[in-house]
Write a structure and sequence with these properties.
This protein is of the alpha/beta class. The protein has helices spanning 40-43, 79-91, 106-118, 135-139, 157-164, 169-184, 210-224, 253-265, and strands at 27-35, 48-53, 75-77, 97-100, 125-129, 147-150, 188-189, 195-199, 201-204, 230-233, 271-273. Helices cover 30% and strands 17% of the residues. The strands form two sheets. An eight-stranded mixed sheet has the order 3-1-2-4-5-6-8-7. Strands 9-10-11 form a three-stranded parallel sheet, with no helix packed on it. Helix 2 (79-91) packs across helix 3 and helix 7 (210-224) packs parallel to helix 8. The protein is globular.
Length: 293
């Protein structure tokens, strides 16, 4: 079957060859564990039950999880095993099931979520995405996903083409995010500050690109209003494989402060921030061909 799961619409028969995302018809998982480095409302005190999928449809040249993007790392998971893993993470006390880079694996994940929910999965499901999604794919998760964490990376098509090979990134991502918000609204938390439903938009401030961060913040406010929850992230970490300027250097304190000052000036009411101690490889978890769970 010709694959049209993501906006690449590469129409590859993934039973015969890998798509642009690097994925064949099988699901590969490189890590499934409690994860404590998400936003406080996601990680909480017990951790987020995070499942890192292999393969990606965006191919960002600065990706901290670069080892996963070609779709080859990780252990092959059947749908029943994927559902069982969700239930095991719940039994470990996870606040939620956190699906990281799930886009290429839509059909298997939808099936696994239905199976897991039928077998007793009751904690919220988080869809953790680069936001380069089709509206139809997001609609497939209606009633199955409780929380969406889209990372709105760019507005400027020159940047999205240069850094992620997707000149149509913004026009595509903003519509996908609108569908997410239509489904579950803005993020809501319980009496302990743990998220149980809704959308929080992430944005990673890139070195030398604060002008586009302003574009992103303007776009969020114009489309969704200043009450839209956001995470303004400073954790950009240069990777040796990326020599493209200005992404070959860290974000400066002044750049992040400029971005944050602009965010405040727009009147956003619910903003997670980071300090520059978030920079570093310690925030990248270990990945493997063998998943211990």
């Amino acid at each position: 079957m010709a694959c049209n799961i993501c906006p690449r619409n590469c129409k590859i028969d993934r039973t015969a060859a890998a798509g642009f995302c690097g994925c064949s018809s099988v699901v590969r998982v490189a890590r499934a564990a409690l994860h404590f480095d998400e936003e406080p409302s996601i990680s909480g005190t017990h951790g987020s039950g995070t499942i890192f999928f292999s393969g990606c449809n965006l191919k960002c040249i600065f990706c901290q999880n670069m080892v996963l993007t070609d779709g080859k790392l990780g252990e092959v998971f059947s749908v029943p095993r994927l559902a069982e893993t969700m239930l095991k993470l719940q039994a470990l006390g996870a606040h939620n099931i956190n699906l990281v880079t799930p886009t290429p694996h839509r059909d298997a994940i939808v099936e696994a979520l239905r199976l897991a929910k039928n077998d007793g999965l009751r904690i919220p499901v988080v869809y953790n995405t680069n936001a380069y999604e089709t509206v139809d794919t997001i609609k497939a998760y209606q009633g199955l996903v409780d929380i969406y964490l889209p990372d709105l990376k760019y507005v400027d098509p020159r940047l999205s083409l240069k850094f992620s090979r997707a000149s149509d990134y913004f026009d595509t991502a903003i519509e996908a995010i609108a569908e997410m918000i239509d489904q579950v609204g803005f993020m809501q938390t319980d009496e302990n500050g743990i998220a149980f439903k809704g959308v929080r938009i992430r944005h990673l401030v890139l070195p030398g690109c604060v002008f586009d961060t302003r574009n992103v913040l303007d776009a969020i406010k114009a489309r969704f209003g200043a009450d839209c929850p956001i995470s303004l992230m400073s954790q950009f970490t240069p990777i040796p494989a990326c020599t493209v300027k200005p992404l070959d250097r860290p974000l400066t304190q002044r750049e992040y402060e400029n971005a944050l000052e602009y965010c405040i000036s727009l009147g956003f009411t619910d903003v997670y921030t980071q300090d520059l101690t978030s920079v570093g490889r310690s925030f990248t978890p270990p990945f493997s061909d063998h998943v211990e769970l």
